[in-house]
Amino acid sequence: MPDSLPLFDWPEMLPGWVWLVGAGPGDPGLLTLHGLNALRQADTIVHDALIDARLLDWVAPGAERIAMGKRGGVASPTQAEISARLVGLARAGRRVLRLKGGDPFVFGRGGEEAQALARAGVPFRIVPGISAGIGGLAHAGIPVTHASVNQAVTFVTGHDTEGLAPRLDWGAIARGSPVIVIYMGMRNLAEIAGRLIAAGRDPAEPVAIVASATMPGERVLETTLGTCAAEAEAAGIAAPAIVCVGQAVKLRQALDWQRLVAGRPLRDTDPLGTGEA
Ligand code: SAH
């Protein structure tokens, strides 16, 4: 690690170990210091499809980079193949960094990979990361909790191996969670929105879709539950994208700090009309 940060006992990455590291949503500045420490020491980096290329500029000279991630619609390795590769590299005595987008344990199959290492007797370390559904939204000026709006937030996946997450009780989520954050939601957005409305959510309820959050091509679409699928399609909003449903989305009018960076005024400092400080 940098000499300018000498006060911490940085862990050493030993041969034969796998470190499962969350890379954060994209912006290299949102990687943790433990993540940077891992990037500097690893001789083998096995990374996801979603990893921002700028992060990979930080790997140690001569380190091997292996792109291995699952990507919807594109031929990609199976989870078993990825796990077997990690086990094989560790057994060959490599210092393996498994770099995954966001947090490795949030809709990232990190649990499965760590379990495969555990079963194989390969030692590992887990380094959490900033998840897109929290940090990506914060970067876009949307707080996932806000005292006057919600005391609960639900994180859901918009699809799994069986399609539109069939085991989810969308009605219960619609009734119980003032703010709903949907990962991998673009493919089934019309159906998800339809289910939430059918369960009583207002079609006029604010929705934000944040695509490529914290990356150079970040785009934010502010829309409504009733129109989000059509508007996203018309605007050409593409994955990776996070969908946030709820009144918290309105706060972006006050909290979109990127306007300040660009020298533009905030749109409204009290968008909820609560007058609170
Ligand atoms: N482990 C990751 C999530 C992996 S699932 C995390 O904690 O963030 C992949 C989904 O995450 C994408 O379909 C998208 O919904 C979301 N996602 C990941 N990175 C994103 C980004 N930079 N911008 C918007 N959404 C992102």
UniProtKB/TrEMBL annotation:
NCBIfam families: cobA_cysG_Cterm, PRK06136.1. One of its GO terms (biological process) is cobalamin biosynthetic process. It comes from the Bacteria. SUPFAM superfamilies: Tetrapyrrole methylase (SSF53790). Gene3D superfamilies: Cobalt-precorrin-4 Transmethylase, Domain 1, Methyltransferase, Cobalt-precorrin-4 Transmethylase, Domain 2. This is uroporphyrinogen-III C-methyltransferase. It comes from Maritimibacter fusiformis. The keyword S-adenosyl-L-methionine applies. It is an enzyme of class 2 (transferase).
